[in-house]
Write a structure and sequence with these properties.
The protein is mainly α. It contains five helices and no strands.
Length: 139
């Protein structure tokens, strides 16, 4: 049992941020794949996405999905800024930010249950800093 947060709340935080990060990963990976035609960058994004899967799997994917509460989520609405994009670079940048923010939340909450998962997520976040920088040079 977690000291300061219940298991269901913990799982909800992990689930929401895992999903948010996975969605962002896919967008960035697809920009590198289909817009930049960069096989090396695409492979790095894909490896990073799979690294996220591995780190979060330690918490039991069934447990985190079963804690999901879409109807009761008080922060579900979309803000206006999320509906506007100027170009592909803007799409890429917004999704890279989404990934980094989600990874940071996952890292911090993972410290409550699995320090090794937290460290893996930290390393992954730093990998994203590099991947983002390299892709934005090309966009």
């Amino acid at each position: 049992m977690l000291k300061s947060i219940g298991n269901k709340a913990f799982s909800r935080v992990i689930d929401a941020n895992f999903n948010r990060a996975k969605e962002g990963f896919r967008v960035c990976e697809d920009v590198c794949r289909y817009v930049l035609d960069d096989a090396k960058a695409t492979a790095r994004w894909k490896r990073a996405r799979h690294g996220l899967n591995d780190a979060v799997a330690t918490f039991g994917l069934r447990d985190i999905v079963s804690a999901r509460d879409i109807v009761g989520d008080v922060g579900r609405s979309t803000i206006a800024a999320e509906s506007k994009r100027r170009d592909v670079a803007d799409i890429f940048y917004a999704n890279a930010q989404r990934i980094k923010e989600s990874l940071r939340v996952l890292e911090e909450f993972s410290k409550l249950k699995d320090v090794q998962a937290a460290e893996a997520l930290k390393c992954l976040r730093y990998e994203i800093y590099d991947l983002e920088k390299n892709a934005l040079k090309s966009l």
